[in-house]
């Protein structure tokens, strides 16, 4: 902070205050939701079963994660002896108020900073996921109860409960990044990498674990309950129903919240690292103050926009319009404040520096465009989903083919939009003669910051989905029929499916933008180490180089391997659920409603299966870049990252949108009049084909696709962290190189073991 003038210091303190305002708004909304009616004793009974299952999963997950956090905290502390403190850190802590002249003292400060930042990132990500999920569970029964009276009231409760999670994400993410900047100043990247890595790693665990849990339960419930037994979606005789409802929360609340949170962290990390590079060129700290100020404005905008969500038409379309109205209000308010802040603060040679404003504005627009692309390909009101509905007349095969075609086309348009965004950054910043690469990549990072400006809105939209889905399940299992409640909840559920699909699109897009900006941070860090060692600077990644091309090819395969293992994990876990549900259906007392199924046993099976699969996927994500970097060199590692970004983007969008479209196609048929003779409605052959499509799509859209987001960022962050080591090893003596060969062999062994483990037939 000593490098900032009085106005800049005031601005940073205002940003910190804004983070507290976001957290306070979350508490305010939570208190509002908790005051709502909880419904009948039967509804509370169902709710209690869901809550018990959710808490059991959270407890198991925490026990699995905390030991790993402890180990990695020690590793981050010791990393200073390999990745030395930056020149900025030495300068920063050598001046007042620290006045540390001893190099070992500075070493310890940075070591503690990295370790504590890592703990903060991990715990904040865990907190967002856990509290967000608890809020969603507490809200579902209240939404179900209010649906007996009004559609508008039910939507208000569901959306505000989701907003609690959104504002926690906003508030904690901004608080963490700002407090690290206040302490470390220009040396913030030394600690922020730990902050980003902590959040990203936890997001990987929560996203993957939650995805496996929810889809194992969902597939098991649908295949046996709907297809084999011809039961309703949430028939209380189905032993997997509670696990399915729990899964909606662990996957789409806890998992998505952690996913968006780590994108939020990563874009700040990359923005500050690249901003610091421009500070070195210009001497002005405004380049690292700007992204924090943008994030502060985003919190204020999200508060305003989310509170403005009011339904004017008691229909699914009216609900979607109300949610979109809140989102667009936040976007408009943000753009106005960005312009004002830029005009007042961003100056170069006395002239207003509009380029950062243009970049963050493009990010806001990018989020809206991706929203619309995803909505077009997954919403029930548009032609792609209607085409799948038509295809169900030909049976499961044509249903699958139609959804695959839709998903692949949607991936093309989403990728082209992101490519256009990066090209826009080139047009905006490419005329800079000082250092074109640094400026362009800074522009990309600001686009990512802008894209996640409305994090509060995005997470609110996502959490709205499982809350509405759970409310529908609570009403069905509790036998709620009065006052048109079931239709209101069905409409909210349909809207929730669309909002979940939309936010998945934003999450994927933000992951790619974050990865591209991290790629810029990677090049910056490599250049810094090469400069210190007196080596020729890496000017870019030459794809014509055979080693780089090999890295590119290997990187392109990793998302496919990762997705394959994730889907196989769902298959194994779902097989166990199917066998358990079938076993319980053989009990005539369950089928006659004389006794309840053993819901807890299915929850336990899903929980255990999800936690078992985490280790395999984590090993692949962490070891892959280290192996490529140490074996093939730093430039090949850059090619590896490029391959992952491209392949991961295409595959993630394809899986997310095809799965979302299959799901909504099924819901269209379920809303039809039930008439087996006309082949319409539930129980018809078209419905069975749609259920098969949805069952195939579920692990794609809720497990494998979303899991690629944190995987891409974990690999990129690991690459940024190890890049200095890779550069140093390449010019080290024979003893160090021998040690690196041993490390490579051990890591290849771990990678191979992980792949071998994924091939086992039983969970």
Outline the secondary-structure elements.
Layout (H helix, E strand, L loop, with lengths): L5 H29 L6 H38 L8 H8 L8 H44 L4 H34 L3 H41 L12 H42 L3 H22 L8 H30 L1 E2 L2 E2 L2 H24 L4 H9 L4 H34 L6 H16 L3 H24 L6 H49 L12 H40 L2 H4 L7 H34 L1 H37 L14 H46 L3 H24 L6
Antiparallel strand pairs: 1-2
Helix pairs in contact: 1-5, 1-8, 2-4, 2-6, 2-7, 2-14, 2-18, 3-4, 4-5, 4-6, 4-7, 4-14, 5-6, 5-7, 5-8, 5-14, 6-7, 6-16, 6-18, 6-20, 7-8, 7-13, 7-14, 7-15, 7-18, 7-20, 8-9, 8-14, 9-10, 9-15, 10-12, 10-13, 10-15, 11-12, 11-19, 12-13, 12-19, 12-20, 13-15, 14-15, ...
Structure, explained:
- The protein is mainly α and 763 residues long.
- The protein has one domain (6-757).
- It contains 21 helices and 2 strands.
- It has helices at residues 6-34, 41-78, 87-94, 103-146, 151-184, 188-228, 241-282, 286-307, 316-345, 355-378, 383-391, 396-429, 436-451, 455-478, 485-533, 546-585, 588-591, 599-632, 634-670, 685-730, 734-757; strands at 347-348, 351-352.
- The protein has a two-stranded antiparallel ribbon.
- α9 runs antiparallel to α10 (355-378).
- The radius of gyration is 25 Å and the shape is globular.
- The mean pLDDT is 86.
């Amino acid at each position: 902070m000593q490098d900032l003038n009085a106005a800049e210091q005031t601005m940073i303190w205002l940003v910190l205050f804004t983070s507290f305002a976001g957290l306070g708004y979350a508490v305010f909304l939570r208190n509002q939701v908790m005051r709502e009616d909880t419904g009948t004793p039967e509804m509370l009974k169902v709710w209690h079963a869901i809550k018990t299952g959710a808490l059991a999963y959270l407890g198991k997950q925490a026990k699995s994660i905390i030991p790993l956090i402890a180990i990695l905290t020690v590793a981050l502390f010791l990393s200073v002896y390999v990745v030395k403190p930056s020149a900025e850190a030495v300068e920063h802590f050598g001046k007042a108020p620290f006045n540390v002249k001893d190099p070992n003292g500075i070493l310890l400060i940075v070591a503690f900073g990295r370790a504590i930042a890592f703990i903060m990132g991990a715990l904040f990500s865990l907190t967002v996921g856990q509290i967000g999920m608890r809020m969603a569970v507490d809200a579902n029964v209240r939404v179900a109860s209010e649906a007996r009276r009004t559609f508008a009231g039910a939507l208000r409760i569901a959306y505000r409960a989701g907003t609690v999670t959104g504002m926690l994400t906003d508030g904690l993410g901004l608080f963490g990044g700002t407090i690290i900047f206040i302490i470390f100043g220009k040396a913030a990247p030394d600690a922020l990498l730990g902050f980003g890595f902590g959040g990203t790693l936890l997001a990987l665990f929560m996203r993957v674990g939650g995805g496996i849990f929810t889809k194992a339960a969902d597939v098991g419930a649908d295949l046996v309950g709907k297809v084999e037994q011809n039961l309703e979606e949430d028939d209380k005789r189905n032993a997997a129903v509670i696990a399915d409802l729990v899964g909606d929360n662990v996957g789409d609340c806890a998992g998505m919240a952690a996913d968006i949170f780590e994108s939020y962290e990563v874009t700040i990390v990359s923005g500050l690292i690249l901003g610091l590079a421009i500070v070195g060129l210009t001497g002005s700290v405004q380049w690292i103050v700007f992204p924090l100020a943008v994030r502060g404005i985003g919190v204020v905008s999200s508060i305003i926009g989310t509170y403005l969500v009011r339904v004017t038409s008691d229909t699914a379309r009216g609900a979607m319009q109300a949610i979109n109205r809140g989102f667009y209000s936040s976007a408009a308010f943000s753009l106005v404040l960005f312009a004002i802040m830029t005009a007042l603060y961003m100056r170069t040679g006395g002239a207003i520096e509009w380029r950062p404003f243009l970049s963050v504005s493009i990010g806001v627009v990018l989020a809206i465009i991706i929203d619309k692309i995803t909505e077009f390909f997954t919403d029930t009101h548009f032609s792609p989903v209607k085409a799948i509905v038509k295809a169900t007349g030909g049976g499961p095969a044509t249903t699958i083919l139609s959804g695959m075609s839709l998903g692949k086309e949607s991936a093309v348009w989403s990728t082209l939009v992101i490519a256009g965004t990066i090209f826009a950054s080139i047009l905006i910043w490419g005329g800079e003669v000082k250092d074109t690469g640094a400026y362009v990549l800074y522009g990309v990072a600001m686009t990512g910051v802008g894209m996640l400006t409305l994090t509060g809105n995005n997470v609110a939209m996502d959490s709205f989905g499982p809350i509405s889905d759970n409310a529908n399940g609570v009403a069905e299992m509790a036998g709620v029929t009065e006052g048109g409640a079931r239709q209101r909840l069905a409409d909210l559920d349909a809207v929730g499916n669309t909002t979940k699909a939309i936010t998945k699109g934003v999450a994927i897009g933000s992951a790619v933008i974050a990865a591209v900006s991290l790629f810029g941070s990677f090049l910056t860090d490599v250049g810094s180490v090469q400069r210190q060692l007196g080596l020729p600077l890496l000017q870019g990644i030459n794809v014509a180089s055979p080693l780089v091309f090999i890295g590119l090819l290997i990187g392109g395969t990793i998302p496919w391997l990762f997705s394959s293992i994730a889907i196989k994990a769902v298959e194994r876990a779902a097989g166990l659920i199917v066998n358990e549900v079938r076993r319980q259906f053989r009990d005539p007392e369950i089928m006659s409603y004389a006794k309840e199924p053993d819901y807890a046993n299915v929850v336990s099976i899903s929980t255990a299966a999800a936690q078992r699969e985490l280790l395999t996927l984590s090993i692949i994500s962490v070891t892959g870049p280290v192996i490529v970097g140490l074996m093939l060199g730093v430039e090949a590692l850059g090619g590896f990252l490029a391959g992952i970004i491209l392949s991961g983007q295409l595959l993630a969008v394809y899986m997310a949108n095809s799965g979302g479209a299959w799901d909504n196609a099924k819901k269209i048929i379920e809303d039809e009049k039930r008439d087996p003779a006309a082949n319409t409605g539930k129980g018809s052959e078209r419905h069975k084909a749609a259920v098969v499509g949805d069952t195939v799509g579920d692990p794609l859209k809720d497990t494998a696709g979303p899991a690629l987001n944190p995987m891409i960022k974990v690999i990129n962050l690991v690459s940024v962290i190890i890049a200095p080591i890779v550069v140093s090893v390449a010019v080290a003596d024979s003893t160090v190189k021998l040690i690196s060969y041993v490390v490579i062999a051990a890591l290849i062994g771990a990678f191979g073991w992980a792949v071998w483990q994924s091939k086992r037939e039983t969970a």
